[in-house]
From TrEMBL:
It comes from the Archaea. This is Ribosome biogenesis protein Nop10. Keywords: Ribonucleoprotein, Ribosome biogenesis, rRNA processing. It comes from Halorubrum aidingense JCM 13560. GO terms for biological process: pseudouridine synthesis; rRNA processing. Belongs to the NOP10 family. NCBIfam families: PRK13130.1 (NF009623). One of its GO terms (cellular component) is ribonucleoprotein complex.
């Protein structure tokens, strides 16, 4: 499922807060926008075990 709501891709460096829009360009800084929806989650994720292992290894 794709969200129509987009967020400024450079909001961390260009703005104090996220700027949401429906356009392909940010209305405030004219930068590119990205899809604001999180990545889909699947319990059968074939690489989930490896990501969790890497995350635990990085935390130590």
């Amino acid at each position: 499922m794709k969200s129509d709501i987009r967020v400024c891709a450079d909001w961390e460096t260009a703005h104090d807060r996220p700027v949401y829009t429906l356009r392909d360009r940010c209305p405030e800084c004219d930068g590119p926008t990205a899809n604001s929806a999180p990545a889909p989650f699947s319990p059968e994720d074939p690489y989930g075990e490896y990501r969790r292992r890497a995350r635990r290894r990085d935390a130590e």
